[in-house]
From TrEMBL, chain A:
Heme binds at residue 69. Membrane-anchoring subunit of succinate dehydrogenase (SDH). The chain crosses the membrane at residues 20-45, 57-78, 98-118. The gene is sdhD. The heme is bound between the two transmembrane subunits. Keywords: Cell inner membrane, Cell membrane, Electron transport, Heme, Iron, Membrane, Metal-binding, Transmembrane, Transmembrane helix, Transport, Tricarboxylic acid cycle. It is a multi-pass membrane protein. This is Succinate dehydrogenase hydrophobic membrane anchor subunit. It comes from Parahaliea aestuarii. One of its GO terms (biological process) is tricarboxylic acid cycle.
From TrEMBL, chain B:
Belongs to the cytochrome b560 family. The chain crosses the membrane at residues 24-44, 65-83, 103-123. Heme binds at residue 80. It comes from Parahaliea aestuarii. One of its GO terms (molecular function) is electron transfer activity. Membrane-anchoring subunit of succinate dehydrogenase (SDH). One of its GO terms (biological process) is tricarboxylic acid cycle. Keywords: Heme, Iron, Membrane, Metal-binding, Transmembrane, Transmembrane helix. Its main location: membrane. NCBIfam families: succ_dehyd_cytB. Signal peptide: none annotated. This is Succinate dehydrogenase cytochrome b556 subunit.
Length: 120, 124
């Protein structure tokens, strides 16, 4: 069984804490974005908002939190359902394959996000 | 890892209580949001690229299908956030009893429905 080596922090307690801290950061970020969108926004104001360094730093923090949060959350789901016990050996193959796909996707999200924040 | 560890709960054979449903929905919404994040990043990309892409995005978001997709992602965010906050509250030892768990699950579902409806009104 390949479980412990694919977890985020290699320790359940570490993953538990990272999941909570990243969750709080993501909630704060989405509330921040929601507050800025609620009254409607035009391009100039929206662009000016994301031109500020602190907003870019906050956005990158949220992006990295998302990476950790998704890694830990999806690891928990995959190691619960795609297992040798439930599916036989193909459970292991499928789980590790999906995990690789998820990790590659997380990497793409992070690079894409950095490009959006600093590229335009 | 030891494969011979006993499995106490085979959830396929049980009638699930409301707390189990909110837990499974929390997981499902998390997986859904992971995919939905591509939509949000695409929207952020188009909104910041240029005045033209911003205008195109605004135009695109007037279509009912785009609104429905956005609403689904926002609904996922709302539910996942509320269920996550419930987790944090329970981490502090609040609402860990049987009744507390059921009450928490009901509150999460009730608040989610209200906020998701409000989000729908806002999007349309």
């Amino acid at each position: 069984m390949v479980r412990a080596v694919t977890s985020f922090g290699r320790s359940g307690l570490s993953d538990w804490l990272v999941q909570r801290v990243s969750g709080v950061i993501l909630l704060a970020y989405f509330l921040f974005i929601g507050c800025n969108l609620i009254g409607g926004v035009d391009y100039i104001a929206w662009k000016a908002l994301f031109a500020q360094t602190w907003v870019r730093v906050f956005s990158l923090m949220a992006l990295l939190s998302l990476a950790a949060h998704a890694w830990i959350g999806i690891w928990a789901v995959l190691t619960d359902y795609l297992t040798e016990r439930l599916m036989g050996t193909k459970g292991n193959v499928l789980r590790v394959a999906l995990q690789l796909l998820v990790i590659v996707t997380i990497f793409v999200y992070v690079v894409w996000g950095v490009q959006i924040l600093w590229g335009y | 890892m030891n494969d011979k560890r006993p499995v106490n709960l085979d959830i396929g054979t049980m009638r699930l209580p409301i707390t189990a449903w909110t837990s499974i929905t929390h997981r499902a919404s998390g997986v859904f949001l992971f995919v939905g994040m591509a939509v949000l990043l695409y929207i952020l990309d188009a909104s910041l690229k240029s005045p033209e892409s911003f205008a195109t995005l605004k135009e695109c978001l007037t279509s009912p299908i785009a609104k429905l997709v956005l609403w689904a992602v926002v609904a996922g965010l709302i539910y996942h956030s509320l269920a996550g906050v419930k987790h944090l509250i329970m981490d502090f030892g609040i609402g860990e009893s049987m009744q507390g768990g059921v009450l928490g699950a009901r509150l999460v579902i009730g608040l989610s429905v209200v906020l998701i409806v409000l989000a729908g009104v806002w999007i349309w």
